[in-house]
Amino acid sequence: MVSVVVGCALLGLLVGSFLNVVVWRVPRGESVVAPPSHCPACGHAVRPRDNVPVVSWLILRGRCRDCDAAISSRYPLVELAAGLLFAVVALRFGPAWELPAYLYLAAMGVALSLIDLDVKRLPNAIVLPSYPVLAGLLLLPAVADGRWDDYVRALVGMAALFAFYFALAFVHPAGMGFGDVKLAGVLGLALGWPGWGVLALGGFLGFLLGGVVGGGLMLAGRATRRSAIPFGPFMIAGAFVAVLAGQPLLRLYLSALTG
Fold it and tell me: What is the mean pLDDT of the chain?
């Protein structure tokens, strides 16, 4: 188990480095493959030894080796965040067949959250391929472990959460973007697999987190009722809390409810 967690943490650091490229290039319609990573100030290609997650940024003291331009601290922070999330997901699932599906969800969630915060969009280039990718990865435990009931529930969860968000967007289009609707279906897949309670909790927590943060921003005078606040990060955060700790939270709630 320890080796799985450590291995996933190291993998997360590497994936986090790639996510930095995704977050920068995808909203601009650029390829994430070519050209290779380069300094945006001087255009010089990043050397392999300067592309080691976190370590290279620390060695270079946050500066380009060629032109001494500042390199944002967000780069190592994204790498660390991805490494930590991968480790937590590995702790939750262990060496199980569904682990790759939720590692993918973690990577996708980091990328989409940052892009939504940056440009207030959830690009189709990431959201739409996530449907077949996540459905295919969840098919692995369904086949290997015979968990077809869980797989069917995941598909129903996908349709249910998509339909719920679609209805909200139809009733109040100014308050819900269609990017959120498309993301809801992906999250429904991931939330439906562990159980109906986790699906309901994950959907609820997105609105709860969004309401709390939005209310806090208004109280602090940093937003108004008309301010456009990206909702994708709250949907993703709520889904992650539910996937990682939903069952204990539900047991705690039921225990408190019944005394």
Answer: 89
